[in-house]
Amino acid sequence: MNKKVAFIINPISGAKDKAKLPDIINSTAIEKNVQVDIFHTARPNHASELVRELVANSYSRIVAVGGDGTINEIARELVGKDVELAIIPQGSGNGLARHLGIPLAVQKAVNVALCNSSELIDTATINNVPFFCTAGVGFDALIGNRFAESGSRGFSTYATIATKEFLNYKSKEYSITIDGIVYNRSAFLITIANASQYGNNAYIAPQADLQDGILDVVIVAKPPLIFGPLFAARMFLKKIETSQYVEVLKGKSIKIKRNEEDYVHFDGEPGKMGKELKLSILPSSLRVVF
Ligand SMILES: Nc1ncnc2c1ncn2[C@@H]1O[C@H](COP(=O)(O)OP(=O)(O)OP(=O)(O)O)[C@@H](O)[C@H]1O
């Protein structure tokens, strides 16, 4: 393959040891006769800086080695460009990679990253911040932020925070405008999905398609605590739309008004934004190898 390929490894993503990755990448590259260079991120947003330099230096394929946060930092620099994104899933959730069917096994994923061709997928923005999988407001945005503030990682911390916050959390009022039609809803959370899942095969929008030019808007009412496990089971079985607590709408241009500045999440990254959120889709705007 006559391409200049760069791998960007996020050393802190996920839980797997990444010490052997450079050897696997280099030996596969020799076998496939591809020129590769490997970089490591040293801090948040470093991946974006690296990508800007790599694009300026004529790399034609950039491989994100990490999770959805790493992909976000890399892909945001590639939207609208001819440079391809490939993925070695090494995150905690790997939502985009799982949606695309990219193998979780390292050697297989490296083969795909070096040998497969790319297709165009849709990307999206929330108040001009790019996202590729999901973005949203409400309970999951609160938990994501609390989890980040806690400074510790791991599922047990996450579950403890989620259970404690669930008991106190009150649904909030939102005015949602989708392609000009207004929906007023009291919601536990609202997820805007480009891809179908949060990660770990938790399908919040099972029908979401990365190549349909449409965003899925999933509005969830607060289920009683006792329904929590059933709700989770429906997510993993791709049946969330059958829940009485879920409403799914679709559109290209979405505005969400809420009563105050509050938390958001995009691709699992926590953040805070104002009362008014504008979400847009950019159809066929990113070349992804899968
Ligand atoms: N050297 C570094 N030190 C600390 N943070 C880093 C470093 N390099 C990258 N990061 C940050 O690590 C964060 C987490 O990465 P990422 O989202 O890929 O992993 P994850 O959260 O385990 O996976 P997923 O998003 O799939 O659940 C990113 O937000 C990125 O900014």
TrEMBL record:
It comes from the Bacteria. Signal peptide: none annotated. Residues 1-130 form the DAGKc domain. It comes from Acetobacteroides hydrogenigenes. This is YegS/Rv2252/BmrU family lipid kinase. Its cofactor is Mg(2+). The keyword Mitochondrion does not apply. The keyword rRNA-binding does not apply. Pfam families: DAGK_cat, YegS_C. GO terms for cellular component: plasma membrane. Keywords: ATP-binding, Kinase, Lipid biosynthesis, Lipid metabolism, Magnesium, Metal-binding, Nucleotide-binding, Phospholipid biosynthesis, Phospholipid metabolism, Transferase. GO terms for molecular function: ATP binding; kinase activity; metal ion binding. GO terms for biological process: phospholipid biosynthetic process.
